[in-house]
Amino acid sequence: MRVTESALTTTREFFDGVALFFRSIGVMAHRPRLYLLGIIPGVISVLILAAAIASVALGLDAEVRVLTGFAHGWAPWLRSTVDIAARVAVVGLSVLISIWAFTSLALLVGQPFFERISSGLDDEAGVPDGPPSTLWNDLLTGLREALRVGALVAVVGLGLFIAGFIPLVGQTVVPVIVALFGGWTLMVELTGTPFARRGLALTQRRIRLRQHRARVLGLGVALFLVFLIPLGAVLFMPVAVAAATVLTQQITALTGRDDIDVAAGPSAGAPPQQH
Q1: How far apart (Å, rounded) are the C-alpha atoms in residues 45 and 105?
Q2: Are 237 and 36 in contact (CB under 8 A)?
Q3: What is the distance between the alpha carbons of residues 189 and 247, in angstroms, rounded to a whole number?
Q4: pTM across the whole model
């Protein structure tokens, strides 16, 4: 019975996260000027990353031939299987890294724009001002945290890339894991600004997000899938920032500050307490 209740709670939390994405579209629809400002960093980021994305797409056949050279001389059906697996693996890894790179770059380039969106929503919700900071400090902190998240993306991405060569598993299970992991890293990145306003760094942010994992993943996966749509990342980046801010408001209201302080101490490795 408890297992069933837990599964239902987790499912409800996940779809609450998905619903938050759609509500955030309405939030930005009522703020057209802020929305247009929020698109600018996404456009700049896409233009910077366009060459890298194009090179991967145009060189896909050559990349696959290099990766599948070991299958030369195998039976045709087996070579085709390996070829498909390699294509899925290359595309999956490229998508994971490109979405992380776009989000990190857009947040750095557009820090002043997204700060206006996030701080405006916090002001409307009555969130008190956080510790004073400067644009330079915010940029350095954002860059440092983006690199730490990027290192994790590289390690996990490599593992998923290798798993992508496993027939059937690489074409079914791995894409689901990519969406879940990609959605999680998106939320770690996007909640950086609202958490920093509350004086909470990356380690504390991860603890708080883990305590509400299902809701975070619901929103993160929805954003990850939308970012896969051509120009989706550009058009929905302001919505993503708004959604991350509202999510931060929700989970900081559900969990007290003391829980973070305890979790960040010697027992940080223990499983987070559910709320």
Answers
A1: 6
A2: no
A3: 13
A4: 0.78
